[in-house]
Design brief:
alpha/beta; Rossmann fold; Dehydroquinate synthase-like, alpha domain; 2 domains; six-stranded parallel beta sheet; 14 helices; binds nicotinamide-adenine-dinucleotide; binds fe (ii) ion
């Protein structure tokens, strides 16, 4: 009987509130949840932008008692989570608001579920390991971006093992996402580029993944379409509001798509780079995307060709192979246009350290499970070759 069941589960926040100024709805949304004591989780860079003071004011005006935990670092760690849980307890918060990029949002997700799921954090790495719901969370992204506001995923570094742990569990999903592009306008060019290619990678990997499905396919393609229209525009002119709006929506859609399909080899290889070399997540994805696409395309040529046509780098008449080859050129050109460096050009990278770490990075990539979703399932030796190609 159960052999005939093919159930694709699709989880998204119960509300996604988007558009110019939508952050001003936070107070009424918090009241809808019945929240009385809020902990804002953020980082010092976002505080410096003045965004946190505004969000705090909105919550206070809605009658909530507010505390701020701002000690999240990029590539957040188990220690950040532990400090945030202590801040949650000290404030006796019944509600968490995440404000920032993927780092504060991921940290806030884990802080919110931690009181009800108190095993050592490493036990929750992987799929569906967090069982009990946490306290309600509203996520407000300021990068466009990870799409974390709409995913059941959090990525937290285990500082003892130097491993970026990917956790995917429904209780991590924010109740509400507020997607207000005005918060992304302050992003400098380098950040716009890196997080924008992260978004593209989410759309592409969700679409080519072995876990792709009919619910995620149209959302993944819409994400890719929005990136093709708006990423270069947002990078060229930070004040292009239509482009900022388009990229914010693309990021959210990319999150919805990969969270219910999966990421694949690019993300699997990207996390070990982040854990060892601490370069931004979107940048390590961008560096790997052309090489991994060249490695993978002929195991799902029709899917990669559809991506090429959606990006506008191949026309409807082009056969799958030439469309896929155009896609690889497009991805190289995109990195050049957005002035994204190669691995060897990143600050702090030396060939010696790279050679010392590359075997461990390949092992950690496979252990994360993401490469197994790739259309072409790589061996550790092939992953080492791909890291070298990205060098
Ligand atoms: N949970 C998910 O679904 C998911 C998906 C992809 C990536 N991630 C994770 O997200 C993290 C990366 O997040 P990110 O790329 O959004 O960056 P981030 O959150 O690490 O932020 C990077 C820097 O940008 C600054 N910043 C944020 N918003 C800004 C703005 N509007 N203007 C100027 N500066 C701003 C921050 O202060 C910070 O210094 C990684 O740890 C990655 O693994 C999570
Ligand atoms: Fe990502």
């Amino acid at each position: 009987m159960t052999d005939s069941v093919a159930a694709n589960r699709f989880d998204v926040p119960r509300a996604i509130v988007s558009g110019k100024g939508s952050r001003l709805k936070l107070g009424s949304l918090a009241n809808e949840i019945g929240a009385t004591r809020a902990l804002i989780v953020t980082d010092p860079g976002v505080v410096a932008l003045g965004v946190v003071a505004e969000i705090e004011g909105i919550l206070v005006d809605a009658g909530l008692a507010v505390a701020v935990f701002q000690d999240v670092q990029p590539d957040p760690t188990d220690a950040n989570v532990a400090d945030g849980v202590a801040a949650l307890a000290a404030h006796q918060a019944d509600f968490v608001v995440a404000v920032g990029g993927g780092s504060p949002i991921d940290t806030a997700k884990v802080i919110a579920v931690r009181p009800a799921n108190a095993q050592p954090l490493a036990k929750y790495m992987g799929l569906h390991k967090i069982e009990r719901p946490g306290i309600p969370l509203i996520a407000i992204p300021t990068t466009a971006g990870t799409g974390s506001e709409a995913t059941k995923v959090a990525v937290i570094t285990d500082t003892e093992r130097d491993v970026k742990m990917m956790m995917l569990s429904a209780p991590l999903l924010p109740q509400v996402a507020i997607v207000d592009y005005e918060l992304s306008i302050s992003m400098p060019k380098g950040l716009t580029a890196a997080v924008g290619v992260d978004t593209l990678t989410h759309g592409m990997e969700a679409y080519v993944s072995r876990k792709n499905n009919k619910m995620t396919d149209p959302i993944a393609l819409s994400c890719i379409d929005l990136v093709s229209k708006y990423l270069k525009r947002a990078w060229t002119d930070p004040n292009d509001l239509e482009a900022r709006d388009g990229m914010m929506l693309a990021a959210c859609q990319g999150g919805m798509a990969f969270s219910n399909s999966s990421v694949c080899l690019v993300h699997g290889m990207s996390r070990p780079i982040g854990a060892v070399f601490h370069i931004p997540h979107g940048l390590s994805n961008a560096i790997l995307l052309p090489a991994v696409t060249a490695f993978s395309w002929n195991h799902a040529p029709d899917r990669y060709a559809t991506i090429a046509r959606t990006l506008g780098c191949a026309n409807a008449e082009a056969d799958a192979e030439s469309a896929c080859l155009s896609l690889i050129d497009y991805l190289h050109d995109l990195n050049t246009t957005l002035e994204l460096p190669r691995l060897s050009q990143c600050r702090g990278f030396t060939r010696e350290v790279f050679d010392d770490c590359v075997e461990k990075m390949a092992t950690d990539a496979i252990a994360s499970g993401s490469p197994a979703n790739n259309p072409r399932d790589p061996t550790a030796a092939e992953i080492v070759t791909l890291y070298n190609e990205a060098w």
